[in-house]
Design goal:
The chain is mainly alpha-helical and about 140 residues long. The chain has helices spanning about 1-10, 10-45, 80-105, 120-135; strands spanning about 55-60, 65, 70, 75. Strands 1-4 form a two-stranded antiparallel sheet. It has a two-stranded antiparallel ribbon with strand order 2-3. Strand 2 (about 65) and strand 3 form a beta hairpin. The chain is elongated. About 0% of the residues are buried.
Length: about 140
């Protein structure tokens, strides 16, 4: 059983998958940084300084005690975070599209396998049979 597990782990598919998962984590950090640090300030500039991350609809205010300590936190719909997530999705989709497009350009076009030599046609076979019968 240990030998089977070793063979399973050492196959190319498992190694490729593990590399893909590690790279996806790294790419995720890069995309989040790009979205939060570059794209959102640009979008905020064009929308008059709006930061979507802070946008929410408060359903119920937080309840505080006399010292200002939160007894019950606020209940809010964080729609700004959702907008950020949508922008992040569009950026990730575009980046993946560009990566796949670049990868497809690097692949060699499939060469067609050489065709098997065509056999004689029906007319050629009938002509050969006729000639053999004449002899």
């Amino acid at each position: 059983m240990l030998k089977e597990f070793k063979n399973f782990i050492m196959t190319g598919n498992v190694i490729d998958l593990s590399i893909a998962v590690i790279l996806a984590g790294a790419v995720s950090q890069v995309v989040k940084g790009f979205t939060n640090n570059i794209m959102m300030p640009i979008i905020g500039y064009f929308t008059g300084g709006v930061d979507f991350a802070d946008k929410k609809v408060i359903l119920q205010e937080a309840i505080l005690d006399a010292e200002g300590k939160v007894i019950k936190p606020e209940n809010a719909i964080l729609w700004g975070e959702w907008v950020n997530a949508l922008i992040n999705l569009v950026i990730v989709g575009f980046v993946l599209f560009m990566i796949v497009k670049a990868y497809n350009k690097t692949k060699k076009p499939k060469e067609e396998a050489p065709k098997a030599p065509a056999g004689p046609t029906d007319n050629q076979l009938l002509t050969e049979i006729r000639d053999l019968l004449k002899k």
